[in-house]
Amino acid sequence: MSSFSFQLPTKIHLGNHSFTKAAELVRETIWGDRLFIVTDPGLERLGLAAKLEHLFIRAGFVTEVFTQVRPNPRDTDCMAGGEAAKRFGADAIVALGGGSVIDEAKAIAILQALGGKPQDYAGRGNVPEDVVPIIAIPTTAGTGAEVTRSSVITDTERKIKFTIKDVRIAPALAIVDPVLTYDLPPHLTASTGMDALVHAIEAYTCKLSNPIADGLALQAMKHIYPNLRRAVRDGSDEEARYEMMIGSTIAGMAFSHADVAAVHCMAEAIGGLYDTPHGVANSMFLPYITAFNASADMKKHANIARTIGIAPAAVSDEEATARLVAEMKQLAADIGIPSFSSLQEVNPADFDYLAESSYLNGSTPSNARTITKEDYLQLFKQAYETPVTA
To answer: What range(s) does the Alcohol dehydrogenase iron-type/glycerol dehydrogenase GldA domain occupy (predicted)?
Structure first.
């Protein structure tokens, strides 16, 4: 019997229109008045950052907005943000956006307090001192970053991703408002939604799973799977949007207290080299890793199929798992996720490098089945050349 710890440092306020209560909720959470708002240029153009800033200013806060954030956040942008937050004298960092914004905000909080570069804090438990409180307001139902203790950053020189994992960068407050996702276009709804589903699946099947994380992961699947196609098909489906948002947050809690695994290792490898959107990358590799991992714990993989309702209790674990592999491929196709080979930037000559990058990822040891660099190489080739079949 294993032992484990489970810490929940984030206060979660989830509900439609909770965004309008942001100033009140932040006032209850932090000391101080100076809020450094991290967002992206798109949300600035849409006026959402201005609305948030107005709420804060009306409540007596002093604000500064930082928009130097790109998909797959860069170490250089984090360093610029850290310097800006230090000059401003931020009492808290407020992240308004998707996973890239929230991950960069976490790194900015570290660099404001401790200086250096994000790479100095890579790995588990390498943030030596407390940072200012982080407030996360997600605008996608995908990463769950609003409740995780992780920040994934791109090393622009080496073109790889690395992860900072430390409870000190878990947000103090998450304001989770499904209404903020209503205008998300179908392709982003699809990719972020698949990211959330992968979080739940890998949290449940990885070697660092535990009973509490398992319960959260299975519950997340129940929210996400029946509603992902609905949300992609009709972004105005308020029930589907709500279910996707709560599922994403629960999945974030699950993997933050377990881990992700080989799907993320492969996705982060191509994200670092090709700048592929993270949710798209996860979706492309999920069926292949599921098939590869199934033999390590057939019962758990079969239980995923039964939990999401694609395999009745009467079928064997092997059949249930085969249905899961087939459905993950079909789901991605139905919601418009491209295949790996359809990405113009992909070059088979890079596969050895990608396999090495995947193998060196800190989550490789967590994969359900022991996986080698050669395994990763074959999986990249398989994803590029052949479909997964049940």
So the answer is: 9-178
